[in-house]
Specification:
This protein is an alpha/beta fold and 148 residues long. The protein has one domain: Rhodanese-like domain (Oxidized Rhodanese, domain 1). The chain is 33% helix and 8% strand. The protein starts with 8 loop residues before the first helix and ends in a 25-residue tail after the last helix.
């Protein structure tokens, strides 16, 4: 078995995003209003700190494919077919790109994510509730904390 070529996470992210029609927060909100499924993949602790989108379905990243695979035995009722538009939301729009690409690999061809994630969603004035401490701190201003 030959070794795979080495790639950086930036390479993987760029490849994932190349296959997505990513949505700005307001466009994502319009898609949800038209029936798209908004899926928040952030862990519970992060949602507690940052807040939540009331219309979002919570499916943490570690079980996303199992819950949304229309042919899977562990799917949720909303995983009704391959034409469902799934809009994935994370904290800053990094992990959501990788997750949306994974859903597209399953055949959910309308999967995408929100540019800038939950932070951009809130900054755009879109519906959000809760949050105890505000956005998670960044480790370095020039390199965002990639936590979801």
């Amino acid at each position: 078995m030959s070794a795979r070529p080495r790639r950086t996470i930036e390479d993987v992210l760029a490849e994932a995003r190349a296959g997505l029609d990513r949505l700005e927060p307001r466009d994502a909100w319009e898609a949800v209003r038209r029936g798209a499924l908004l899926v928040d993949i952030r862990p519970a602790a992060q949602r507690l700190v940052e807040g939540e989108v009331p219309q979002a379905l919570i499916i943490e990243r570690n079980v996303l494919e199992w819950r949304l695979d229309p042919a899977g035995s562990h799917r949720i009722p909303e995983a009704s077919g391959y034409d469902v538009q799934v809009v994935v939301l994370c904290s800053e729009g990094y992990t959501s790109s990788l997750a949306a690409a994974a859903l597209a690999d399953l055949g959910l061809h309308r999967s995408t994510d929100v540019v800038g994630g939950f932070h951009a969603w809130v900054a755009a004035g879109l519906p959000a509730t809760g949050g105890s401490l505000g956005p998670a701190p960044r480790l370095h201003e020039e390199r965002p904390l990639l936590v979801g």
